[in-house]
Every structure is written in C-alpha cells, then in structure tokens.
Amino acid sequence: MSGGAEYSVPVGPIHAALEEPVLFNFKVDGERVVDVEVVPGQNHRGVEWMGMQRNPVQVIYLAEKICGICTVCHAYSFVRAVEHISGIESTPRADYIRAILAELERMHSHLLWAGIAAHEIGFDSLLHYTWKVRENEMDLREMITGNRVHYDMFMIGGVRRDIKQDQIPKILETLKYYKDNFEKLGKLFLQDKVIKMRTQGVGVLTKEDALKLCAVGPTARASGVPKDVRQDQPFGAYLDIPVKAITPDALTGEVHGDVYDRIIVRLLEVKQSIEIIEECLKRMPEGPILAEPNITRLLIQLKKAHGEGIGRHEAPRGEVYHYVRMDASDKVTAWKVRAPTYANVMPWVPMLKGQQIADIPIVAASTDPCMSCTDRAVVVKEGQKPYMISGEELHKMSVEKTRRMMA
Amino acid sequence: MNPEEIVEKFKSKFGAGVLDAKVQTKSGGVSKTQYHFVWMTLERPLLKDAVRFLASEWQPHLSVISGVDLGNILELTYHFTVGWGVRLGEIPVSIRIDLPKDDLTVPTITDIIPGALITEREKQEMLGIKVIGIPDARRLFVPETFPEGVYPWRKDATGVQPEHVKKLWEVGRLKLTPTGQGVAVNVEKAAAPSAPAKKENAGAN
C-alpha cells in the first residue's frame, strides 16, 4: 500500500503501556515507516537538579524514585559513586545482599517486559500468565525488603536490612518455582509460531549501529555486542561470582539483532539471575550489613568527602552510569544520571525505519524503554485536517496484523 | 590492558597536553578483586584529537558527558569505557576539559561517535554551552515553555533562580487552558457537582 505521498504520524506524547512519556514523530509512506524522530522530555522532572540541593543520604532516596521498576540500579550506582569518593567501603555481606536485590529486580523486570511484549502483539493470555508468574517474585521482594516496589534498602556503606536465615528457605522455594516454570515460559515465547512471525526479522539493529549509537543492555547484546557491566567491570559480589554477557547465539548459534533475539536474551538472563542468586546465597559471608550504622556519624564523614566518583551497574535495561562530585560540603556538587533508555533512544531510529505502522508497538517496546508511547497518535497530511488514532487503535492494528498472519 | 598503559599512551601522544592524569583503584566482594578508573584532564583544543585517538586505539563506548559549573569555568567530562566484552577487562576513561565562562564552545564529536548526539544536546540546554557543528541543535529534555537563557545546572545568574521553582502547595495546580488539541479537564470543576449532592443526601437523612 504505497501512494508515494509521505505522511507524518506523531505517536505520543503520553504513555500507555509502561511509564514515562515519549513522543515519536513518524514519516510514513502508506504502511511503511520512512523516517522517525524520537522526542523525549515530555515530562522532565529535573531530578539531577533536585539532587544537587541535597546531601548524599537524601539523594539515595531520590535516586530510588527515578524509576519504580529499576529502583535498585539507581540507588546502587549512586551509593557506589559516593563510596568511591568517600572511601567508605560496603561490607562483604552487604555486597551479596545488593547483588541478590539486583538480580531479583532483573527477573521481575524481564518478566514484566515479556508480558508487555506479548500484549503488544495481541497475545493477552500470555501476558496474564507471565504476570501471574511474576507475582511470586514480587511477594519475595516484599518479604525481604518490606515493599513490593520501592525498597529503600541501600545506604552508603551497605544495606539497611539483612536477609535473615529463616527467609532463605522461602527464597529457595521461589527460585525453584521459577526454574520449574522456565521451560514452559521458554517454549511459549520462543517456539510459538505467531510470536516468531511477529518478531523475527522485525526491528533489526545491526551490530555496527549498536556500537555506533552507543546502545546498552539487552538491546546491544541481542545485536551481538557482548557488553555487560557485571562481566566487563564487575563490582561487589560480581567480583566473586563470574557473569557472562548473554548474546542470542548462546541459544540459536546466530545473531540477527531483531525483536526475537531481544526476547531470547531477556529470557536467558532470567535463568542466569536465578543461578546468580543461588550462588550468592551459598557464598554469602556473615558480618555487619553497614560500614557505619550511625547516620549522624556517616553524614559527618560524608561532609568531609572531596572528589569525584563513578557508579555503574547493569540494570535490567542496560548500563546505568552515575557521575558524582562532592566538594566537602553538605550538598552534592554535581550529579549526572545516565539511565539505559537514554542510550537506547538513538538506536530506535534504525530499528523503526522500514517497519510497518502495526509493528511500531512491538518494536518500540522491544528495547524495554523506561518511558512509553502510543497513548494517542495523530495522522497529519500536509495542508489537511489532522485526524487522531488512539493508542488503542494502534494496538488494534498490531493485533489485527497478528490475526492476518495467522489466517 | 592495564590503566597505566592507557595513561602512558595518552602521555606519549599528547605530551604536556595531558594536564593531569590519575588512576583510581577500588575493590569489593569477599575476594577484594581490584578494578580501575582512569581520569585525565586535557588541554581544551586537544579534545577532538583525544577522542579520535581513543577511537583508533580501542573501541570506546561513550557512556555520557557530564558537566559542572565551578565558578569561573565549566568542567566538561567525557565518560568513555574501553576494553569491554571481557571479564574484568573494562576500564572507564574519563576525559576532561575546562571551558572558561567567556567562551563556552566545544566541537562536536558526533562525527566520530554518532551516539554522542543525545548527550551533546543535553549539555547545550542544561549548561548553556555551544556545541560547534552539532547536527541537531534543538532542545531535548527541557520543555519548549522553559525560559530562554536559563540553564538548570549552572550555579551563576543563568542557573535556576528561586522564582523558577514552583511550590505547588503555595501556588496550586496550573489552570488548564484549552489548546484546541483535546479536551482540557479542570479537576476542581469536574469534582464540584458531586459535593452539593452529598450535602443534600446528608440533609435528607
């Protein structure tokens, strides 16, 4: 369906499926996307500026609130940066508890994403199944941290709550539940004919583009870039427990860099996270969970801290990078947060070019953006009255494409 | 690859142009394995050559560019990582240049690393620097309604002033005006009709 005339189709700016808003301006020729421009900043909260008005302990809580899904990774990166500046080292036991939290976060985040991916192509029974499976893990995190979403577990020099001996059987039981269900999930996502049709060869990001555009996380790994902070520059418990970056050729022997490969990488990472948590529980040393349990004394120490530090962590979506500078004052002088979606905005462009409009939801969601789109869309033809497509309609188009392919 | 080697290579290439170089070493876990960070301050005109050199010697990944207002100067730090793909092989290399406040310009590096565009655009709007040769100079995160000439990360007169900070508990929510693009709902008004209805019910009881 190509009439030669190009239309522009903005998709956004208000979210529908995930959190945070983003606007896509598409140029389409018939059903085909000719060009795309990504416009973030629909709801910039100025978190970094707010952080620069606070002391480092206050910033931890702010950092956690950057994102509800990857609350661990921002707090972890920030406290690492401050620990590098102040010389306060986290205790070995805290390192292990941090790794367990981080891996639990990865498991839930990837499962959440898998459900959304299924929903985007109209496979809603799989969405409900995946999210049902995810619930067990939410309960587990509530048991360990006291909360399902924002845990406030991190402190400079350690963590705020211990994992008690009587909690370990429950953790092992939940991990066993995931191991038992893993085969089934793998089969549902990777062998289903419809999912294969909708995701193979769709939204391709070549290795060359991934490198050039500084892609991170599963998005980069699915394109064959073996980049993972836990492997490349391990920290904390990852220094004791080796982690290997997962690329899709581990399963299929090939790298295509399409949406299907991104599903493979994330599913294998869920399994990898289970193994890491088991290893952490086996090796977890005894000892204190905080280097300095007295917050007043900690703050006095931090007030003298001078210098700059980098805190990095492999979040579910990729590398998180925090740069912090402190100048012996009660406030943080500078704080720069680089979340993985920031780095994965530019790779969206080659992924979406040449795709059909009905593929926009699944391709856009395939980087697991920490912001989303498709609440409403306006189709504009030069000099004519614009008309709207709602997010639901766009979703319907995607579902209809699946139906057509099944027929 | 070890961190000293990176510093040595830069020193032999740029000589006195490397104003400062240090290696930060940290450790963790039970094994106390060490890992390193490299920090270098370069003379300002060398930035582009340094990035080109880095790209030719290693395969660098640009994480982000950070910037700090230090009074008379703005300090820009380009955070790269090199040696990724191998366990314990990666070293973050942060290259810094100082910009005097009266000449806040820096050349773009998007011709060497195209992925730098997003972070260069952010530095322009947040710090008020000018990136020469940037392929897309528009704002990125800052909304269109944000005043011109205000740069959130600056700590001088062009930074965020107290009058820019809106305290919602003092001023209340923005009154919405129809934009013609959709229906604006005034939350207070929409909620209003139900309130008297409740009162009537209460009276009847």
Gist of the model:
The complex is a heterodimer of chains A (407) and B (205). By secondary structure, chain A is α+β, with helices and mostly antiparallel strands.
Q: Could you characterize what this model shows?
A:
The complex is a heterodimer of chains A (407) and B (205). The model of chain A is unreliable at 15-19 and 371-386 (pLDDT under 50). The longest helix of chain A has 29 residues, at 92-120. Chain A folds into 2 domains: 6-43 and 343-406, Enolase-like, domain 1; 47-338, Orthogonal Bundle (Cytochrome-c3 Hydrogenase, chain B). By secondary structure, chain A is an alpha+beta fold. Chain A has 17 helices and 10 strands. Chain A has helices at residues 47-51, 56-64, 71-86, 92-120, 124-145, 168-190, 193-199, 207-212, 217-221, 229-232, 249-252, 259-283, 295-304, 340-344, 348-352, 360-365, 391-406; strands at residues 6-11, 23-29, 32-39, 154-155, 158-159, 306-315, 318-327, 334-338, 376-379, 387-390. Chain B is an alpha/beta fold and 205 residues long. Chain B has a single domain, classed as Beta Polymerase, domain 2, CATH 3.30.460.80. A 5-stranded mixed sheet of chain B has the order 1-2-5-4-3. Chain B has a two-stranded parallel ribbon with strand order 6-7. The radius of gyration of chain B is 25 Å and the shape is globular. The N and C termini of chain B lie far apart (82 Å). Chains A and B meet through helix 10, strand 6, strand 7 and strand 8 of A and strand 1, strand 2, strand 3, strand 4 and strand 5 of B.
